[in-house]
């Protein structure tokens, strides 16, 4: 807008600095409340790989084959991990050490995500100011900095792909729109590099490579296609596919999987549309129409052949060429019917309605207004924001984890809405003359020259010029007003405008309070350590997990194999430094099903399975003493389902009675617990209190009975003299 | 073949207002948690026993779980979200130049009411469902 002079530029920079500082600081609650520790499960794996990278170097990590997980299969780390986050943290570590700032690699990892959220807020400013105006950009940046959904995945300590991937996502969109708006080749190169960084960081890059073609098709359909769209999009298809293929985890998927076919199809359509326009410029009208008819006929014939080939290729695969996780997005019932592992992850469930208000708050109310606001001044960028918003809303409706992709879209649209509302209200206030008597320089207006002339003079002539300048700027404001609001504006009554202004400011204040409250309470818990509030206001800390992992690390042979449910695999390899059987990567369902089967079988069968896997220690998580509801007993039915998916002799119906006692698992949890009796999570007294284990011996139980580690005996305990059962007597009689 | 080509040339894009309306309707359905309803198939309302009379009472909001809902509860929440968004759109319609004076006041009042009711209703629903929401904001650690 023409209002900004030099002061405006400095003011903008100061505001952006404050927004970045706010984005960084709001994510530090868990460091203040607990300590600078890595949270959850997946970040431990990323941390371990980063440690390896900083110690051994780039090429060793690229070629690393990890034999300490998925025993006896191992895992090819270089080929199955999205390395963007790890390279980012590793580079920062190297730069800091080169500058003689010897930070420990854990500190670098913990603070990577807040730093990149600050950068994401800046990218959001860039995106929306390209699509709309600087004011909307600032509002959008402020909302993106604080939105709870993004905070939940990028607190200090949550060292996971999404921390950098959301920055990469918004950055790709920013460079894309900038290329379309400026048509410069430099920005097109930056666009390509941003896309490469996105592919390196997250599997969600398939959202980008499907949204951009949808946007280009919408531009072709609505007639706003130009050569600049081609400049922005075509390098992504040609060079971008090659760059994606050079990342090992994507590899040939970039040309074989259905996720990329949309981009190829749109590339063909773009070429056809541009060719059509070029030919139309050369031929007179009637010959052009004849040529078009000929071309359409030929294209229909060729197209039919190509479509048959593609459909034939795609139909041969049972998932129509999509990967399992992408197919879950398109058909939400797919995972629950066919792939129980995908269905069991709580992040993959669809969200219920309160998720929207707690994760997005004011943005969810303002987003529809932002869509209308974009439609009113529809340009290339605004159309893109609308499409981004709508597709993101759909995907977030299917999977709770993807609320994260909706968050920047909703905040950008909400920024547009807030900017429009504030423009209307403030212009109405100005039209009624209800403005404070500020000096003409700070008032801005279209007359920066008048203002500086007034400053240059001084005294009575300066005062007269200022008054004249203000009068002139009133008329100028009227002209500016009508250009801002369009020809259809009426100023709102003064009281309504003031009330509306107070209301909008109140809404933004409640947004801030909500974000800070939610991130302090709900999203800052490192699930590795738990706190319970006490009556005098202090907190009692449960540190059982780390206690148990430390026990494993110090009291077992370095080559022992440890078995547990797959949730704890990454933490075990990172903190206890022992080989595990299954971990959170969940790439091999039948291996997980074997462990599930062992957990659900009687003691003797389970012992045989574990011995065949060379397992020496088994551990379970039991929350009955302190009421921890995320323990393994609550996950037990998933063990049965996943085991039953591969081994048909495990049937879910057998385990659904309240007497969940058939399996090893229950025995391990309840052994020697009989004296206490009461299970706080399930809320009833434990039924069988006389569990004796013949094949396992208890090795360690943590302080609050949360982690229970058992050693697999080499041979079972011999029975003390027990009278023979009827069956054994009959068998002995038959043998005699 | 010629008929197909002329039909393609005569096809018009839908009007912007139609597309907008479709977008808002789909927004309503998604924020109702329709995908959750399809997969988890919760009942329309929950039920609990009244401790005094022993009869079953209907329960509207699934308590204490932020990731669970009943179907009607989802519809109520989604309705409030969409109403808030529509209220802003109505407010925008109110200050057009070609709007007659008698309608302007009505539209402004209606739009303001929709926004306020939508916001405060959603907050009320959330507090009914989760009593611990923002309840401990100002206590020290």
From TrEMBL, chain A:
**Which InterPro entries does the entry mention?**
Oligo_trans_STT3 (IPR003674), STT3_N (IPR048307)
Q: What is its EC number?
A: 2.4.99.18
Query: Pathway, per UniProt?
Result: Protein modification; protein glycosylation
Q: Name one GO molecular function term.
A: dolichyl-diphosphooligosaccharide-protein glycotransferase activity
Asked if the record carries the keyword Glycosyltransferase, the reply is: yes
Assigned keywords, A-Z:
Glycosyltransferase, Magnesium, Manganese, Membrane, Metal-binding, Transferase, Transmembrane, Transmembrane helix
Which ranges carry the Oligosaccharyl transferase STT3 N-terminal domain? 12-414
Q: Topology relative to the membrane, per the entry?
A: Multi-pass membrane protein
Report residue spans for region: Disordered: 453-475
> Which reactions is this enzyme annotated as catalysing?
a di-trans,poly-cis-dolichyl diphosphooligosaccharide + L-asparaginyl-[protein] = N(4)-(oligosaccharide-(1->4)-N-acetyl-beta-D-glucosaminyl-(1->4)-N-acetyl-beta-D-glucosaminyl)-L-asparaginyl-[protein] + a di-trans,poly-cis-dolichyl diphosphate + H(+)
Give yes or no: UniProt keyword Ion transport.
no
Q: Which GO terms describe its cellular component?
A: endomembrane system; membrane
Q: What class of enzyme is it?
A: transferase
Name its cellular compartments.
Endomembrane system
| TM helices/strands, residue ranges | 12-32, 76-96, 108-128, 134-152, 164-189, 195-218, 230-249, 261-279, 291-315, 356-375, 382-404
| Cofactors demanded by this protein | Mn(2+); Mg(2+)
Instruction: Please indicate which superkingdom the organism of origin belongs to.
Output: Eukaryota
User: Which family is this sequence assigned to?
Assistant: Belongs to the STT3 family.
Query: What's the protein here called?
Result: dolichyl-diphosphooligosaccharide--protein glycotransferase
Source species of the chain? Raphidocelis subcapitata
Upper classification of the source organism reads: Eukaryota, Viridiplantae, Chlorophyta, core chlorophytes, Chlorophyceae
UniProtKB/TrEMBL annotation, chain B:
Residue spans crossing the bilayer? 20-39, 74-94, 106-126
The name under which this protein is listed is: Oligosaccharyltransferase complex subunit-like protein
A GO molecular function term, named singly, is: transferase activity
The record ties this protein, via PANTHER family, to: OLIGOSACCHARYLTRANSFERASE COMPLEX SUBUNIT OSTC
The entry's keywords: Membrane, Transferase, Transmembrane, Transmembrane helix
Similarity section: Belongs to the OSTC family.
Cellular compartment(s) = Membrane
Which GO CC annotations does the UniProt entry carry?
Answer: oligosaccharyltransferase complex
Key word Acetylation present: no
**In which organism is this protein found?**
Raphidocelis subcapitata
Q: Which InterPro entries match?
A: OligosaccharylTrfase_OST3/OST6, OSTC
Q: How does it sit in the membrane?
A: Multi-pass membrane protein
